[in-house]
Amino acid sequence: MKKTITLIFLILFQITAFACPVCERNQPKVLRGIVHGSGPDSNWDYVSIVITIIISIFAFIYSIKWLIKPNEKNQNHIKYSIFK
């Protein structure tokens, strides 16, 4: 667990280390050091980003869930041709 926390910390630190000074100056405080570019134009940009993140998290969780336990019981399913 300690290695995982350390790895996450190092990855986050590395992301902030690569923002250029011009982009860092143009970003709001929340995004400084994380993203490049001119920054969000309005609060709707934040809403669209949060919605995209939520959809991505759900897709990731369900893809892992169905990869581990697909619950496919049909004997004609293509996966059984691989198992034979």
Structure description:
This protein is mostly helical and 84 residues long. It folds into 2 domains: 1-39; 40-72. 64% of the residues lie in helices and 0% in strands. The chain contains 4 helices and no strands. The protein has helices spanning 2-17, 21-26, 43-68, 78-83. It is elongated, with a radius of gyration of 20 Å. The mean pLDDT is 78.
Q: What are the key terms here?
A:
2 domains, 84 residues, mainly alpha
Helix-residue proportion: 55-70%
What is the number of beta strands?
0
Compute the separation of the termini in Å: 38 Å
Morphology call: elongated
The oligomeric state is: single chain
The ordered H/E elements are: HHHH
The overall pLDDT average reads 78
Which class do the helix and strand fractions yield?
A: mainly alpha
Count of separate DSSP helical elements:
4
> For the CA atoms, what is the radius of gyration?
20 Å
How many strands, which pairing sense, and closed or not: the largest β-sheet? Answer: none
Question: Low-confidence runs (pLDDT<50, min 5 residues)?
Answer: none
**How much of the sequence is in beta strands?**
under 5%
Number of separate domains: 2
Question: What's the topology here?
Answer:
Layout lengths: L1 H16 L3 H6 L16 H26 L9 H6 L1
Short note summarizing the structure:
The protein is 64% helix and 0% strand. It is an all-alpha fold.
